[in-house]
Please model this.
Amino acid sequence: MRTVNMHVAKTHLSRLVEAAANGEPFVIARAGKPVVKVVAIDAPAGRLRRTGFLAGQIAVPRDFDRMGSDAIRTLFESGE
Model:
């Protein structure tokens, strides 16, 4: 993604906005640090979800679908 400093953004705002409207978002920086991101209004908001980003970091027990079944059965059978 293109980054421009504040002075360039002020000087070429019309051109930059046109580019953003055509699907080329850009970042405006002040003193080299990103301040704002300019995107078209109809651009999708937020980041896409990454499927599998925790792969290998979480372990699901083999009996996950039966966990607590005895306690649940007891609650139903006791009538409480």
About this structure: Residues 2-41+55-78 form a domain with the YefM-like fold fold (CATH 3.40.1620.10). The longest strand covers residues 33-38. Residues 69-78 form the longest helix (10 residues). The radius of gyration is 26 Å.
